[in-house]
């Protein structure tokens, strides 16, 4: 406390606790370190909760993208629905829908096939009569006519048979409403609005569907009157559903699911009371399964990152404990005086909180806010739940409370031990014992345990269980390996610096001074080395595994499909009898497939294969040369590219082709994968041999819808088709990627800590460096040499951290990526992406940091006054 005099001449006592916030400004570096440490700790604690919740939201969005839009809520449907009971069912649904927050239901009704329908005197048409509420007509493209009451006929039959507006069809002598509109037929695949009605609303002409046209009634009265007139007792397809906005968060999806279940229960009870309980099959399983998967994805990510999040938060709290010790040393004289005047340990711990509490609170709040604002940058592409945001805020608040309590506790314990018990050296011995303890052995043991678990990771990813089972120890394996290497490197660096007094490089004074400065600050040097190595290694591991899984999904789907889309066709286009449509000619190729000898044989067109197939996923640089070689006849047999060669692979080819003569080997090939197979050129096939190829496929880089429309317009039969988007379930890959994106985030945060630690270490030694630098400049050293000495010192420290971190991180990621592959049954295995961009980025940042730190160190020398330094 200090004595001050007021305006009235009376003495006024000011306690240091009241002046603590202002007194903190005397050491801005301590304030900055405390604020930044709290910011990073709260950032990671908040980010862990938000990351897991956003993973659930991203999974919900992924599932809604692959689910029909009217399947998010309840669906009431039944096959062969009695026509007379339709009003009772729809009425019950309408009565209860609003009470559970649903809008107007959409009723879809489709009759059985009605053969013998007559148009323009021809009684051989087969139609299906359909109707759908609300926007049914809005989601059909009207080419001719109006929305007047009547029937809308598909354009394919109308154009081919010249059926115009005003035509009045009949069915076995019963007149039907007149045709008031011609709409464009719904093609397979239909627009998403019709997704759930595909079996009733779409004529699949690609599969030779015998139905000529789906005829839509323009309104429910027309549909009901027509069904009654022709005397149909049942409807083949009947469904009542709701078009609800797609949920974007897991909590919204769970709420929608619960409301759907409640509505189903009420409707079922209502119909049961009427004696009609068996009429409908109320259904919410599709989206219920989606919610379960989203919940599992959230829990998987949370369990996976929880150990790392706890470790990082504890490290942040330990950093604040270090700040408390620094503050204690700086305020030692004042604390001794206050203790002598009767202030207890708790009060002096409160003084530390009063002085540093505000920057810690501001830093923690900024960290929590940054974690929420930057979630879209580091986290999954989903929205977190409101409850999760509150939990994240609670985690940040809890971290701040623990930090402040730890700050007060550390100071209070030191005050109690030193001023009340007089025990100081014992603690110092304990710290030295902790420094000599072989922590790397403990972390190596954890890494080994994680490795044993990693071997079994993903084995449960089978049909019906789309997400791999989580083993947190397996997921912490990469981090513990990097930590072990970092600790071992720091241990060796400590020993080397301890023995550095033997170094004699006075012929190179810049190098000698750099070594002596490093040896004089062994503790900060090894601390920065551990943090820097862990940061770079963790960042390399997280980025490598996350991007490796994303690349694996793209590669596996591309190899499996063969290109962006694969459309199986009949022989005319394979034989060249039907030309490739003009819109596909520049980005498509035709591939034939032969089997029967144990090896898959692809018949490719060398001239077009590279522009239509996924050749960018084929390892090797001379695919064009290999395609050219197999196009040239060989008197020894059929020149082939051999794929996935095994000892059991037979050289025999099917259909009487000469035995294979290998022109080159490839480990993987589109459509074949890594299975044993051969690639032959169609230019060596005769017309009869081409005619014997049983299966032809069009590989194209064009979108599936565009390719389907073009081939359909050309009259090509397409029994099957697959695209990269639908070939694989990408969710298991995304979950692994989202998990390790948090590992990458942890590495980035540790990288910031390492940079700050390096700059702070330089700043803390400012006076020492300035004095030594000023003296050597007076002794004749050039400023350029002094700068080179500092760059050697800082460059050696940063360079060692970068080299060890990059080598360790990239190696661990390379070993881990294939083992985190959630689809090991599909070739090729996951591989580490090219690490060169990451390495270059780290090197550039490292050079910039070293240059900045060196400039700060030399600047302190140039701006210092030698006389004042010596007097100090």
Automatic annotation (TrEMBL):
Bilayer-crossing regions: 301-325, 346-370, 390-413, 433-454, 474-497, 518-540, 733-762, 791-816, 836-858
Record keywords: Cell membrane, Membrane, Transmembrane, Transmembrane helix
Gene Ontology CC: plasma membrane
Superkingdom, taxonomy of origin: Bacteria
Cell location: Cell membrane
Membrane disposition: Multi-pass membrane protein
InterPro entries: ABC3_permease_C
Domain ABC3 transporter permease C-terminal: 742-863
Protein name listed in UniProt: Putative ABC transport system permease protein
Species, as recorded: Amycolatopsis tolypomycina
């Amino acid at each position: 406390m200090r004595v001050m005099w007021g305006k009235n001449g009376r003495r006024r006592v000011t306690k240091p606790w009241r002046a603590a916030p202002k007194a903190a400004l005397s050491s801005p570096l301590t304030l900055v370190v405390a604020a930044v440490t709290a910011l990073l700790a709260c950032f990671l604690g908040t980010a862990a909760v938000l990351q897991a919740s956003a993973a659930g939201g991203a999974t919900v969005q992924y599932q809604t993208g692959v689910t029909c839009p009217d399947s998010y809520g309840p669906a009431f449907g039944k096959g062969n629905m009695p026509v007379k009971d339709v009003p009772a069912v729809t009425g019950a649904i309408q009565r209860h829908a609003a009470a559970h927050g649903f809008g107007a239901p959409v009723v879809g009704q489709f009759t059985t096939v009605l053969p013998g329908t007559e148009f323009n005197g021809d009684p051989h048409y087969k139609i299906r009569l359909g109707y759908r509420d609300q926007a049914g007509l809005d989601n059909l493209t009207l080419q001719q006519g109006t929305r007047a009451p009547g029937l809308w006929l598909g354009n394919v039959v109308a154009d081919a048979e010249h059926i115009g507006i005003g035509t009045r069809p009949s069915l076995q002598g019963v007149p039907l409403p007149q045709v008031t509109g011609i709409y464009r037929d719904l093609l397979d695949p239909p627009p998403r609005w019709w997704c759930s009605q595909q079996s009733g609303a779409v004529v699949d002409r690609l599969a030779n569907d015998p139905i000529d046209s789906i005829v839509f009634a323009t309104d429910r009265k027309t549909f009901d009157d027509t069904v009654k007139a022709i005397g149909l007792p049942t409807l083949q397809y009947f469904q009542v559903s709701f078009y609800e906005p797609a949920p974007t968060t897991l909590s919204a999806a769970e709420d929608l699911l619960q409301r759907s279940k409640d509505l189903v229960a009420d409707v079922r009870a209502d119909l049961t009371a009427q004696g009609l309980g068996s009429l409908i099959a109320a259904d919410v399983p599709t989206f219920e399964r989606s919610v379960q998967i989203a919940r599992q994805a959230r829990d998987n990510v949370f369990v996976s990152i929880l150990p790392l999040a706890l470790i990082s938060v504890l490290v942040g709290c330990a950093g604040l404990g270090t700040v408390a010790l620094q503050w204690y040393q700086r305020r030692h004289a004042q604390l001794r005086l206050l203790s002598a005047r009767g202030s207890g340990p708790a009060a002096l711990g409160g003084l530390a909180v009063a002085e540093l509490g505000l920057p810690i609170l501001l830093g923690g709040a900024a960290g929590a806010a940054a974690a929420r604002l930057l979630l879209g940058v580091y986290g999954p592409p989903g929205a977190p739940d409101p409850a999760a945001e509150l939990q994240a805020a609670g985690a940040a608040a809890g971290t701040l409370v623990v930090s402040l309590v730890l700050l007060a506790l550390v100071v209070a314990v030191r005050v109690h031990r030193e001023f009340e018990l007089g025990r100081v050296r014992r603690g110092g011995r304990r710290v030295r014992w902790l420094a000599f303890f072989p922590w790397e052995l403990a972390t190596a043991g954890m890494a080994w345990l994680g490795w044993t678990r990693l071997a079994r990771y993903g084995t449960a990813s089978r049909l019906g269980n789309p997400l791999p089972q989580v083993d947190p120890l397996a997921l912490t394996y990469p981090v513990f390996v990097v930590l072990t290497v970092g600790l071992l490197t720091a241990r060796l660096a400590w020993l080397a610096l301890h023995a550095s007094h033997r170094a004699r490089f006075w012929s190179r004074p810049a190098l000698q001074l750099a070594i002596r400065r490093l040896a004089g600050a062994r503790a900060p040097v090894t601390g920065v080395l551990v943090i820097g190595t862990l940061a770079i290694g963790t960042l390399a591991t997280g980025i490598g595994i996350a991007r490796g899984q994303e690349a694996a999904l793209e590669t596996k789907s591309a190899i499996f499909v063969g290109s962006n889309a694969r459309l199986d066709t009949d022989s005319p286009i394979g034989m060249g009898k039907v030309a490739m449509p003009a819109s596909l000619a520049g980005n498509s190729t035709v591939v034939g497939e032969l089997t029967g000898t144990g090896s898959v044989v692809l018949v490719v067109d060398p001239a077009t294969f590279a522009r239509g197939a996924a050749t960018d996923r084929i390892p090797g640089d001379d695919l064009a040369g290999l395609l050219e070689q197999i196009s040239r006849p060989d008197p020894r047999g059929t020149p082939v590219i051999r794929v996935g060669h095994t000892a059991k692979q037979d050289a025999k080819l099917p259909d009487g082709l000469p035995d294979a003569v290998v022109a080159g080997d490839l480990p993987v090939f589109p459509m074949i994968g890594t299975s044993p197979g051969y690639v032959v050129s169609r230019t060596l096939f005769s017309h009869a041999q081409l005619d014997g190829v049983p299966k032809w496929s069009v590989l194209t880089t064009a979108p599936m819808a565009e390719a389907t429309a073009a081939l359909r317009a050309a009259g090509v039969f397409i029994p099957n088709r697959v695209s990269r988007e639908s070939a694989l379930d990408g969710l298991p890959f995304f979950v692994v990627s989202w998990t390790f994106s948090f590992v990458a985030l942890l590495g980035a945060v540790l990288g910031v800590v390492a940079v700050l630690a390096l700059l702070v270490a330089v700043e803390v030694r400012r006076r020492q460096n300035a004095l030594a630098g000023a003296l050597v400049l007076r002794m004749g050293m050039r400023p350029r040499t002094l700068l080179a000495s500092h760059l050697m010192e800082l460059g050696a420290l940063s360079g060692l951290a970068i080299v060890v971190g990059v080598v360790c991180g990239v190696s661990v990621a390379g070993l881990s990526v294939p083992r985190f592959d959630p689809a090991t049954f599909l070739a090729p295995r996951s591989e580490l992406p090219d690490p060169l961009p990451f390495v270059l980025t780290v090197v550039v940042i490292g050079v910039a940091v070293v240059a900045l730190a060196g400039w700060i160190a030399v600047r302190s020398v140039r701006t210092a006054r030698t006389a004042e330094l010596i007097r100090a």
